[in-house]
Specification:
This protein is α/β, with parallel strands linked by helices. Helices cover 40% and strands 27% of the residues. It has seven helices and eight strands.
């Protein structure tokens, strides 16, 4: 079983649920993927970091930093940064707030992000693409250059297409289709 297959299985058993749900986008769905149940677990972090880093490298995305809209992107970005340090090719991680702080520096972007950085926007689950677009806007306004969007899961509900229409390249480690297929298979 490859690391990609292990990730699909982990998402299928831990993070995916059937029922009636209202998604963050406001859409109704019979599938809910709470990626945090995977991304915030030790074995999930140790799998996602190297797998995402390898995906960035295979795509030849020369980035200085990774990050996205809090909270979903945070553990993924941190796992990538940690894996990059171990691999000897350190990338910095950052967080994009949903709103600027009202105190202190009043930043929208937290962490070691720098103007001029080449950035991969990280997303846990893409549905409409709105969260990634919000992060892209914040990074661009702060002087960053967005190279593309790396998602843990593409729900395959139009978000990828919306991001591509906005000029972004989108990579995903998993799709809803593969996760649903794994939900119906017994664990090996």
């Amino acid at each position: 079983m490859t690391d990609g297959d292990r990730l699909i299985q982990m998402l299928a058993t831990r993070s995916a649920r059937r029922g009636q749900f209202t998604l963050a986008s406001g859409r109704q769905s019979t599938l809910y993927i709470d990626a945090r149940l995977t991304t915030m677990s030790p074995d999930g972090l140790s799998l996602i970091g190297p797998l995402a880093l390898a995906t960035l490298r295979e795509a030849s995305w020369e980035v200085d930093a990774v990050g996205g809209l809090t909270l979903g992107a945070d553990p993924i970005a941190y796992a990538i940064a940690y894996a990059s340090q171990i691999a000897g090719t350190p990338l910095r991680a950052f967080t994009v707030r949903k709103e600027a702080k009202e105190h202190g520096t009043k930043r929208v972007i937290e962490g070691p992000f720098q103007a001029g950085d080449r950035v991969a926007i990280i997303e846990d689950v893409i549905t409409t693409g709105a969260s990634a677009l919000r992060a892209i806007d914040a990074v661009t306004a702060a002087g960053g250059k967005v190279v593309g969007v790396l998602a843990l899961v593409d729900r395959q509900e139009g978000g990828r297409e919306a991001l591509e229409a906005a000029g972004q390249v989108v990579l995903a480690l998993a799709t809803a289709e593969r996760i649903v297929a794994a939900m119906s298979r017994p664990v090996a």
